[in-house]
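hey so i finally got around to running the thing on that chain from the lab meeting. sorry it took forever, my laptop kept dying and i had to restart like 3 times. anyway pasting the input first so we r on the same page abt which one it is
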Amino acid sequence: MNVKKLGWIFLVRGGGAALSIILSLLVARLTGVSGAGLYFLAMQVLLVLGCVSRFGLDNAILKTISAHSVRGCDRSAKNMLGMSLLVSIFTALFIGGFLAYFSREIASGFFSKPALDELLSLCALVLVPVVIFNLLSEALKASGKVASATFIQTVCVQFIVVACLLLFGADGPEIIFQYFFLGCVTAVIIALYRLRNSYSGGGWYEGYTFKKVWTDSRPLFTIALLNVAMASCDVIMLGWQSDEIQVGLYGVANRLSMVGVLLLSVVNGIAGPEFSRLWELKDASGLRNRLQFYTKWMSVAATLFLLFFIICGESLLRFFGPDFMQAEGVLVCLTVGQFIALSTGPVAYFLMMTGKDKVHRKATLIAACCNVLLNFYLIPLYGAMGAALATSISLSCKNIFSYLYLRREFKVGSYA
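ok and heres what got predicted. didnt touch it at all, straight out
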C-alpha cells in the first residue's frame, strides 16, 4: 500500500473518529443523559444483531474474494458475494422480524425500560441495510478499493446523521435512529455504485451453497462473536442491571476513550502485511524487531492519550452537558484499559498473521468470559464505574496474555 493511499485512509479514519465524538456530543446535548443512554443501548443491540446476521461473512468475503481476485476468478468472487448477501439478508429479516414482534417484551421484561420499545422496533428496520453495507464494504476492500470501503464504514452514515441533527434537530433518540436508517440506505447505494464494474460474468449464486458459505465463515464467525461480545457486553449488561442514566454516562465516556483505537487500526493496517511477509520469509529476527518497533511508539502514544484524558477529561465532559461531568472517573478508568491495550502493541494482528489465530481466539474467549462475570458482579455495586472496571480489566488481560505468549514463543523483549 503506497504512502498516499495510506495517508488518505488515515485521514478518513480520523474523520470517522471525529464524527463519532461529534455525534455523541449532539446526542447528549439534544436528548440528555437518559435519552443518550437509550440511544447507546439500542445501538449496541443493533451491533450484536448485525454481527449474528452476517455469520462472520464480512471477514470471509474479505479473505475469499481477495484470493479469487488474485487468481482472476471474478465469477467465483461474484458468486461468493451474491450467496453471502442472500444468506445475511434472509437472516437479518428473520432476526429483525423477531425483534420487532417482541420489542415490547424485551424492552420492559429484560431491560426494564419501556421507553426502549420504539428504538428496538427501529433497530429491526435498520438491521438489513446495516448488514448489506458492511458486506459490500468488505467486498470493496477485497477489490482493492480500501479507501472507499473505509469511507462508507466510518464516515458516510455518521456524516448524514450529524448533518440531519444540525439541520433539523431531534427531540428524542427515535428521530436519531430514523436519520441513521437514511444514512445506512445511502451507504448501500454508494457501495453498490463503487462495486458496479468490479465483477463480471455468470450469475450471483452459481456454484455457492449455504453449506460452502458456512464452511468459509464459521471459524471467522466465532472470532467475530467473541469480539462483539467484548465490545457490547458492558453496555448491554449495564442496560440490564442499571438505569439509562448510567448507560448514558458510560456511553459518552466510552466513545471518548476509544480515540486511541484509531491509532491501533492504522498500525494494524500497516503492520499486518509486514508480519505476514516476514513470516513467509521465516525471518524471526525481523518479526521481533518490527513488533518491538511498533510497540515502542504505540506505548509513547498511549502515554500521551492517558495524560491528556487525566488532565482534560473533566473539561471534555463539560461540553456534553453538566450532568455528564460525573463520568470523569469512568473515562479515566476506560482510558487506563486502552493505555494497556495500546502499550502491548499490535499483538492480535501479529498472532493472526503468524498462524497463531487459535491463541488469539483463546485469549479473546477468556477475556469475554471475564468481562461477563466482572460486569455481572460489579455493575450492581458501582454502576457505570463497575462496567468500566470490568471492561478495562478484561481488555488488559487479553492483551497481556497475548504479549506474554509472544515473549515466550518468539523471544520478544521489551523495546529494541
